[in-house]
Structures are given as structure tokens and as C-alpha cells.
């Protein structure tokens, strides 16, 4: 990749994205809140991807913004057609995003190799783990997108939790019931240093634990620093039950975060 080659103007792609979002606009405020949520989320993921990738080759930053801008295109038809953001009850939104991107987004400025990298990043950004064997630049782009996506999903969920019910984007909680306590399986996964699997969740508190466990999957040092700067763990601790098993796993995740910041920073 020639980093000093003329960099493309991304304004047409940004304008296309705005028009794409506008095509789903509705007069129903409850429905529109979910579309607005994803439009704002995409804008924030673009911002965070560029923050985390600061100092990397300029052309990589272009690919980072393209991938971030396109990563959730599938969320809009997903919500329109299924009324949910839960992939297991609808479709794989990341795969649909990649299809929409390749069919409709103005990406003629990308080479075939670059388009392949962006396609993989968009298509795999929601995978449970990054697959082995990817080319180095594709792997780097995918990991960056995953970090930036998590950084803003945390913001989305904290705002959802503290908003009055009448102002919440209804699909942000994935429909989990607000039950007391946390289930044994998610607690055990976090205690073992693993990410929590969506299939083990039974409640909104379990969903919070799943998001806490994402800290085990962060790749870039700048993303780790943003987690600390934004007080992500403190915010989730305040939302979770004040119970010993929960306090213990939160302390373990905090120790993991601080250890990585110390050893890599």
C-alpha cells in the first residue's frame, strides 16, 4: 500500500451513508430512535477508530473510516424487517452490512485488495473471535474495527440504562428481562478470563457481564486507555448488582486491564 499516494475524498461516501440512513426515516418516534441510535453509533465508531489508529499509515486510516462507516449498514433493514438488533432472532447483520456495502456504497477508490480487507473487517466485526490466518493488514483492520465498535457500544448501553424508559431505543437491550442477580454461566466465564457467549444470557444483568467481558478482547493500547479514561468499568459496576461474585469478577477484569496498560504502555 502506497501511503503517500493521493488519499481519496471520503465526502461522497459520508454523504451516501447519510442518504442511506434517511431512506429508513419514519414518523414513528419509537422506531426512529432505533435508527438514530445506529446512525450516531456509526459516527462514533468512525471517530474512535481514527483515535485508536492515530499514528498508523494514512491509507490505513482511510480503510479504517470506510470499514467503520459501513460496519452496521445491515442494522437498518434488520430492524425494519425484524424489529430487533438480536442477530440470533433475525439475521447476521455484519454479513448483510458487507453485502450492502459491496452492492451500493461508492467505493470505486479502493483497490480490489483494499476492498477485500474492508469486506472482511465489516463481515467479521461481530464474530466471537478473530479467525486465525488472516493477512496481517486485514487482521489489523478487523481488530481495530472491533475495538472501536465496543468502545461505543459501551456508551450506547450506559445511556440506554440511565435513560427514562420512554426515551430508550427499545432494541438496544436486545429484549433481555431486567431480573435480579447474575446467572452462573456468565459469571464463570468472566472469572475464567473468557468472553461471555450470548447464548448463555438470561437477563439484562447477564448482558452487562457480557459487555464487561469484552475487555478481554481489546487489541489496541489506545483502546485500553480509552476504557480507563471513560470509566467504563466503573459505569458497569454501578449498574450491576452489588454482590460478592459480581464484585470479584469486576476486580479481576480491572486487574487484567491495569496489567495490560502497565505492560504495554
Give a verbal description of the structure.
This protein has twelve helices and no strands. It is mostly helical. The longest helix is centred in the middle third of the chain and has 27 residues, at 136-162. It is globular and about 55 Å long. The two termini are 28 Å apart.
List keywords for this structure.
265 residues
Write the layout of secondary structure elements.
Blueprint: H1 11-22, H2 29-52, H3 58-70, H4 75-82, H5 93-104, H6 112-124, H7 136-162, H8 184-191, H9 204-213, H10 221-229, H11 232-239, H12 244-264
What percent of residues are in strands?
Answer: under 5%
Give me the count of strands.
0
Binned, the helix content reads: 55-70%
Oligomer: single chain
Distance from N terminus to C terminus (CA atoms, Å) equals 28 Å
Query: Over all CA atoms, what is the radius of gyration?
Result: 18 Å
Could you provide a short overview of the structure?
This protein has 265 residues and is mainly alpha-helical. It contains twelve helices and no strands.
